[in-house]
User: Which sequence fits this backbone?
């Protein structure tokens, strides 16, 4: 099994960068950065979509796009399908 890893570098404030094998992203609370929950929601939605693509391919389903939106309401986090399959 291959080892997956990312690196995080932070200053003495909440400003940093996440570096992965295929790219990087600025982390923080300022404009133009992603906060931890932004990355978590993105990771969860991406995993859900990757699973969907695997199932769709196995069952010969065709779709060109699926829009997902992650929401938090009253402390409850969930994924919402925006416009469904296209």
Assistant:
């Amino acid at each position: 099994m291959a080892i997956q890893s990312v690196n995080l570098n932070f200053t003495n404030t909440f400003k940093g960068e996440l570096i992965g094998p295929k790219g990087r992203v600025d982390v923080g609370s300022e404009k133009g950065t992603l906060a931890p929950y932004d990355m978590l929601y993105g990771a969860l939605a991406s995993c859900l979509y990757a699973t969907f693509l695997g199932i769709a391919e196995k069952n010969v389903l065709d779709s060109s796009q699926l829009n997902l939106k992650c929401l938090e309401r009253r402390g409850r986090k969930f994924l919402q399908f925006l416009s469904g399959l296209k």
User: Anything to note?
Assistant: The chain has a mean pLDDT of 79.
